[in-house]
Amino acid sequence: xxxxxxxxxxxxxxxxxxxxxxxxxxxxxxxxxxxxxxxxxxxxxxxxxxxxxxxxxxxxxxxxxxxxxxxxxxxxxxxxxxxxxxxxxxxxxxxxxxxxxxxxxxxxxxxxxxxxxxxxxxxxxxxxxxxxxxxxxxxxxxxxxxxxxx
Length: 150
Prior knowledge:
By secondary structure, the protein is an all-alpha fold.
């Protein structure tokens, strides 16, 4: 085990670490499903409106999505292994998620296709990402908080 995190973490550490990994697996699974679906399957799963605008989502937004989910899963695994670098990778994941959501907020066509609740998932992802960063920093030994990553 790493000596970077508390010697004996609380039970909440293990519970939340498993939740973080499961959330990361769901995100990666959704990414793979969305990227490999045919247009017909996509329309059946997410609606005709979203399928119609699927091709106008910019590549950099999709790259943000990919970076967010895969780095989030990596950060979760590193967190469960009690590695300090997990904090930095959680930050990367959150920033990438925000970048991935920008097209949905800036493009009226994408926003309209998402419907009135298009903002719900971005809100959940950002709040959970902020919580992952806060909690992973909180689990650091007091002497490690504020130190640079090496």
